[in-house]
Every structure is written in C-alpha cells, then in structure tokens.
Write a structure and sequence with these properties.
Layout (H helix, E strand, L loop, with lengths): L18 E4 L2 E4 H4 L1 H14 L5 H10 L3 E2 L3 E2 L4 H7 L4 E4 L9 H12 L2 E6 L9 E8 L3 E4 L6 H4 E2 L1 H7 E7 L2 H4 L10 H6 L3 H16 L5 H12 L14 H13 L1
Antiparallel strand pairs: 1-2, 3-4, 5-10, 6-7, 6-10, 7-8, 8-9
Helix pairs in contact: 2-3
Length: 257
Amino acid sequence: MNKRPVCYMQTDSRWKNVRLNCNGGTMSIGGGGCGQTSAAMLIETLTGKTCLPTETFRWSCENGYVYANQGTAYEFFKPVFAKYGISCGMIPTVCMSKTSPVRTMVEDMLKQGYYFIALMKKGLWTNGGHYVVVWWADDKIRINDPASKRTERMNGDPDTFFSQAKYFWWVDAREYNNPKGDELDMTKAEFLKSLTAEECAQIVSAANEHLAAQSAPKWAEEELAEAKALGITDGTRPMQLIPRYQAAIMAKRAAKK
C-alpha cells in the first residue's frame, strides 16, 4: 500500500488569497491553484523538504503555465517535478468511461508505487476542471483533494471516479513507497522464539564451526594458557557448547588443583 502523501489545501487561510499575475490577468491559489497545491503535496512528500503551494504557484505563474479564468496548463506538471529531480509524465489518453484501459493502467501503476495527479471533469469533484492527488486504489480510490475533505471525495467510489477522471499525470514514487529493506527486522528474541529445536541446533553447529575458524582474542589466549597450566583442558577441547554436567566436572577438577 502506498504511503499517504502530505496534504495541503488550496483553501488554507495562509495562502488562499495569494493572487499573482498570469497570462491574461491574475489568479489566486484559492480560486485556481489546485494543480500547484497537488504538485506541492507530492514534491514535499518525495523530497522530505517543505514545499508550500505558494512556491509552486509562484513558479507556475512566472513560467507562463497559468491562464486567468482558465486555470493551469497541462504542461505545468512535468517541468515543475523535474525542477525537484522527480520523474513525471502524462498518460496521453482520455479516461472517459468506467471501462477505459486507462483505469487498469492507473491501478497497476499505483500498486507499483506511483502516485497520480488526476484532472477531474464535471461531477462529484468539481463543476468544471479540478486537479487531485491519487495515492492508492483498493476498494476505494484514496485521494488528497486540495479543495475538500469530504469523505466521498477523499475515498471515492472507483467506478464513479474513473468515469469522471479525464487525464492523469504519473509521478514516480516507487523508491519512496517500496524502499529496500522496508520490512521491519525481528528482534533477536523474536527470531529465536520463531526457531524449532532442529533449527536452533543447526544454527549452533554452524556458529561453532565459524567460531573455530576465527582467531581467539588475546584475553581468550591468556585464559586458555592458564587453564592448561591448571590441567583443566589440554588446549584442544572443548570447542563447542557443553552441557552442565561437563562444566561441573571441569569446575570440580579446577577446585582440586
């Protein structure tokens, strides 16, 4: 399952009224910054560095990707993600029905660890055009919607979602969602508890063989020399774990010296 990305709202009071010059006039984040807010969510998630919607919105306006009374150009996403070293691309096929092959492609890529930004057409998510972040698909389509926290818009019905989605941009988050060594390591106690008696014996035998091949530390050589002088050992035995009765015999022998 993909990790849920950072969530920002374009309607946040800290920036919803930020208005900048763009092609043909001006635009505010609250009024038309859904694409930039969606991009900011994923950029911050994947880089681990703060990236607010104000940053991506300013960049999009300065580079000509915003049009007054229209919104954000489709061409915005690939270069803004590239600016942060993140791979992004558009699926050049319109998703206009529940049975569109785009649906299978998106669901498969989500399972591989990708995130998506989807452009929604008129319906549950918008009265016009609206960008949202898609981060997982199971029995629901898990969404970070920059304009709403309504349950049905954040956990959408798959058939409804794909019938209302028009275009998709994939964002490669496979390394983030599927890091090497992501599995949690067992504690030593948990590992030992999981072993059968036979497996324990095999491990002990292998460990003893490995130990016998190693050079003894200086302190061990000194202890061995003293034990030989006391007649506790001849210097060759034992070279493995011994039962209590053998340890008792050796201790008794040492006590008699």
